[in-house]
């Protein structure tokens, strides 16, 4: 059995609305003969005459009367599906967005973002989950909506990305620490006791690579899994934490922050999403809000 021509739904809707072949033809930009042929196809397809002559005009059959409202709604629904989606009504939007972020992002940018979202779309909830690796599988699977991080080779080629901000490593110690009282040299820095930060155990970092070029090496006293833990531990001890500057702005309040006494490469933190969500108006709105929030927090 062949599939029905769904274009006939539009023709049927106009014919039932106009009740006149000539007027229906004008509405659709067709000739009267072309419209008559379409009516003949509809009659054959549906097994009903649909419009029958009564005097000098046409009147709908009971079957046509039964279908008129249903066909009209089908056409309206189809046109809505094919039309580009309009901007969401934020006050009525009810939705949960899951964001997978590297540690420090939620602590430093999360509160401001939640405040903006709540003011504009009170029915929207944000769910922050910890980023334990750089695999983009969760974006592909749809279990998360957005991700932040440094674009890496292992991220799928289809993943969309937008730069949020540039960041760099800085050193941080408690107030009163010896490094807060005099000029910091590479050797003074390396001779201190340091906190290593790694999600997968002890590994080489850009800081260690830069020190290695100077013939120096950090004394790593402890390794932790994230920036906030490193800052908290440094605040309560003489240990030195070296962390991304913009990721930890709030966390470092009341501590002594210093520029590293050697050059390390900066890096770009980006917002990542899957193409399936690219055209979603609500998703697009949230992406724009995240970009604005990050730009406002220096």
Please name the CATH architecture of the largest domain: 3-Layer(aba) Sandwich
The biggest beta sheet reads: 5 strands, mixed
Which CATH class of the largest domain? Alpha Beta
Overall residue-averaged pLDDT value = 87
Query: Which H/E pattern describes the elements?
Result: HHHEEHEHEHEEEHEHEHEEEH
Number of strands: 12
Strand content: 15-25%
CATH homology superfamily of the largest domain: Periplasmic binding protein-like II
Helix content: 25-40%
Structural class: alpha/beta
Radius of gyration of CA atoms, rounded to a whole number: 32 Å
Number of domains: 3
- Strands in their spatial order, largest beta sheet: 4-3-5-12-6
Task: Predict the CATH topology of the largest domain.
Answer: D-Maltodextrin-Binding Protein, domain 2
How far apart the termini lie comes to: 65 Å
Number of helices: 10
Subunit arrangement of the protein: single chain
Contiguous runs where pLDDT drops below 50 for at least 5 residues: none
What's the quick description here?
This protein is of the alpha/beta class.
Molecular structure report:
This protein is an alpha/beta fold. It folds into three domains: 7-82, Orthogonal Bundle (Arc Repressor Mutant, subunit A); 95-167 and 268-296, D-Maltodextrin-Binding Protein, domain 2, CATH 3.40.190.10; 169-265, D-Maltodextrin-Binding Protein, domain 2 (3-Layer(aba) Sandwich), CATH 3.40.190. It is built from ten helices and twelve strands. The protein has helices at residues 7-18, 21-28, 32-46, 62-82, 105-120, 137-141, 186-191, 206-213, 227-235, 281-296; strands at 51-54, 57-60, 95-101, 124-130, 146-149, 160-167, 169-173, 193-197, 219-224, 240-244, 256-259, 267-273. A five-stranded mixed sheet has the order 4-3-5-12-6, with helices on one face. Strands 9-8-10-7-11 form a five-stranded mixed sheet, covered by helices on one side. A two-stranded antiparallel ribbon has the order 1-2. Strand 3, helix 5 and strand 4 (124-130) form a beta-alpha-beta unit. The longest helix is centred in the first third of the chain and has 21 residues, at 62-82. 24% of the residues are buried. The model has no long low-confidence stretch (mean pLDDT 87).
């Amino acid at each position: 059995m062949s599939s029905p021509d769904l274009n006939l739904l539009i023709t049927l809707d106009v014919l039932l609305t106009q009740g006149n072949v000539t007027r229906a033809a004008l509405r659709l930009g067709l000739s009267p003969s072309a419209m008559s042929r379409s009516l003949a196809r509809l009659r054959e397809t549906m097994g009903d005459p649909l419009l029958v002559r009564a005097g000098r005009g046409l009147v709908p059959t009971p079957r046509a009367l039964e279908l008129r409202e249903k066909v009209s709604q089908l056409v309206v629904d189809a046109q809505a599906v094919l039309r580009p989606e309009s901007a969401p009504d934020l006050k009525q939007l009810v939705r949960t967005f899951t964001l997978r972020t590297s540690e420090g992002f939620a602590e430093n940018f999360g509160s401001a973002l939640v405040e903006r979202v709540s003011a504009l779309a009170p029915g929207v909830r944000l769910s922050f989950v910890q980023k334990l690796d750089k695999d983009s599988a969760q974006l592909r699977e749809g279990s998360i909506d957005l991700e932040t991080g440094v674009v890496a080779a292992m991220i799928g080629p289809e993943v969309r990305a937008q730069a949020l901000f540039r960041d760099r490593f800085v050193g941080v110690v408690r107030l009163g620490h010896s490094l807060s009282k005099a000029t910091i040299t590479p050797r003074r820095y390396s001779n201190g006791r340091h906190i290593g930060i790694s999600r997968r155990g002890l590994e080489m970092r850009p800081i260690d690579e830069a020190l290695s070029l100077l013939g120096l090496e950090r004394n790593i006293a402890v390794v932790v899994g994230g920036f906030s833990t490193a800052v908290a531990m440094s605040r309560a001890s003489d240990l030195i934490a070296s962390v991304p500057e913009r990721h930890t702005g709030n966390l470092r309040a009341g501590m002594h922050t210093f520029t590293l006494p050697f050059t390390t490469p900066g890096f770009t933190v980006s917002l990542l999403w899957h193409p399936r969500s690219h055209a979603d108006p609500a998703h697009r709105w949230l992406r724009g809000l995240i970009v604005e929030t990050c730009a406002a927090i220096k």
